[in-house]
From TrEMBL:
Origin: domain of life: Bacteria
Cellular compartment(s): Cell membrane
Record CDD domains: TM_ABC_iron-siderophores_like
GO cellular component: ATP-binding cassette (ABC) transporter complex
Pfam families the UniProt entry points to: ABC-3 (PF00950)
Listed InterPro entries: ABC_BtuC-like (IPR037294), ABC_TroCD (IPR001626)
Topology of this chain in the membrane: Multi-pass membrane protein
Protein name according to UniProt: Metal ABC transporter permease
Lineage: Bacteria, Bacillati, Bacillota, Bacilli, Bacillales
Length: 290
């Protein structure tokens, strides 16, 4: 495959992986927890490096998953103790992210990880970091990681589809009928953590927030059906990646930034043109009754 095609595939995988998972956060009104987890997983990555002396593969995903769950646990604990939800998120994510930044200084020059790398990422470098087996290249490591996390997320959503759906729309009823809502909650936090860390090298912590929130928010304006919303979120993630790369190529700007900006454009189009919730449609309907 060509250099450009690997970048587009990586962007599409980020869009689908984060879009589908993030749409569940949007439905649960937990979008900003994505911002918290996308920063605090840095602590998990650094911790995994201290244990395994590597930033590749399973140890990094495990470290991110553990810290993502801890982030959700600390936020829930603070909220239960009387702290407002947004304040709890702010306290937890700044504290754990700051701890991760401090620990990076102990790594020094041993690995290509610093605060700028963690925040911004660089998708243009993805095709150069390939999986080598017996001297044979099998494509970028980022593609394998994102593909694996995407398959895992889809499998988990398929296995717990009813539980996720019921606990999302009616948690009280779900609790009454015996749905393990706490388990489902932390399962979702784990999925978000894995999706975030798998996207680190390609788009960075800041831009992955856009892919976690914007596709799901856009799909929310376009449909009221749960499964359709998941599909539309994935589609918007793919379209954002493809159109964003085109914009970056023509204007010679940041690829990841252009992809996130393209997602924002799709959201604006949905605000104005959504067949049910769009601003223009509402204006037309109101004019008919005026």
């Amino acid at each position: 495959m060509t250099y450009a095609l690997w970048i587009i595939i990586t962007g599409c995988l980020v869009g689908v992986t984060c879009g589908v998972t993030g749409s569940l956060l949007v439905l649960r009104k937990m979008s900003m927890i994505a911002d918290a987890i996308s920063h605090t997983v840095l602590l998990g990555i650094v911790g995994a490096f201290f244990v395994s002396q590597s930033l590749n593969g399973i140890p990094m995903l495990i470290g991110a998953g553990i810290v993502g769950i801890l982030t959700a646990f600390f936020v829930e604990s603070l909220h239960a103790s009387g702290v407002q939800s947004d304040a709890a998120i702010g306290v937890v994510f700044t504290s754990l992210f700051a701890l991760g930044v401090v620990l990076i200084s102990f790594i020094g020059d041993q690995v290509h990880l610093d605060t700028k790398h963690a925040l911004m990422g660089e998708i243009a470098f993805v095709p150069w970091d390939t999986l080598q087996v017996n001297g044979v290249s099998y494509g970028p490591i980022a593609v394998w990681m994102l593909g694996s996390v995407l398959i895992l997320n889809i499998l988990l959503i398929w296995l717990f589809y009813k539980e996720i759906k019921i606990s999302t729309f009616d948690p009280q009823y779900a609790k009454i009928i015996g749905v393990p809502i706490v388990f489902v909650h932390y399962l979702l936090m784990t999925m978000v953590s894995l999706s975030t860390v798998a996207s680190f090298d390609s788009v960075g912590a800041i831009l992955v927030v856009a892919m976690l929130i914007v596709p799901g928010a856009t799909a929310y304006l376009l449909t009221d059906r749960f499964f359709t919303l998941l599909l539309i979120s994935a589609l918007i993630g793919i379209l954002s990646a493809i159109s964003g790369y085109g914009i970056a190529y023509v204007w010679n700007v940041s690829i990841a930034g252009a992809m996130a900006s393209a997602a924002g454009v799709f959201f604006l189009l949905a605000i104005f043109l959504s067949p049910k919730h769009g601003y223009i449609i509402r204006k037309v309907r109101n004019s008919r009754y005026s």
